[in-house]
Amino acid sequence: MILTKRHYLMGGGAALLALALVVSATTLANRPDPVTVPESTPIHVTLDQAVASNQNRPGDHFDATVTEPVIIDGKTVIPQGSHAEGLVVDAKPSGRLMGRARLQLALQTVDVSGQQYDLQTKSSPRIGGDHKKRNWAWIGGGAGGGALIGAAAAGGKGALIGGPIGAAAGTTIAWATGHKDIKLRPETPVTFKLAEPVTIDAKKVKS
Fold first, then answer.
1. Per DSSP, what are the bridge partners of residue 105?
2. What residue ranges in the chain does DSSP mark as E strands?
3. Given phi > 0 = left and psi -120 to 50 = alpha, else beta, which region is 84?
4. Predicted confidence (pLDDT) per residue in 132-164, tens digit
5. What is the pLDDT of residue 182?
6. 145 — phi, psi (to 5°)?
7. DSSP class of 103
8. Which of 55, 163, 173, 185 has its CA 20 to 30 A from that of 44?
9. CA nearest 130: which of 174, 98, 102, 176?
């Protein structure tokens, strides 16, 4: 069989077409699909740095690492180990005798395959412990101790004097040691929930 120029052209065209189809199929297979992560989806992270109610202020930023992959319909949307950045929404230090500490954080961005995505998240504020019971214990204990010492030293009159002195001492101790700030160390786990959906290019997860 004698091959003509036409046959060569047809054969070459078919080869090019087959190559184009293979390249196209490979490209489509490797191309990430956009996936929308619904509202209220939890994102679990650990802090990369310390955050505290008495050291940070609203507007401060912090770094975090995703500890659990976010998977939607069999696709990894946010892989484990992804870097995330957050914002200190509210921070209020504890008072010495009154005023609870407050600390509220939010995630702002997450990095997926080198691309940064903006996030809108919500989290419940952390509230520090109450001072009242502890303060009354110190003040009441100081008053009682002062009264006993005063009574031993000078009878009833001494008890009247010793009571207020002891109460003042108890108040001083409560004031000096009364801080109840919220301190989150590095690697502290924190969970955020999406306040709005976010669309991310995802890759299919192997089952």
1. 88
2. 33-37, 42-47, 51-52, 61-66, 70-72, 75-78, 83-92, 102-112, 115-118, 121-122, 126-127, 183-184, 189-194, 198-204
3. beta
4. 554 444 445 444 444 444 445 555 554 444 444
5. 92
6. -65, -40
7. E
8. 55
9. 98
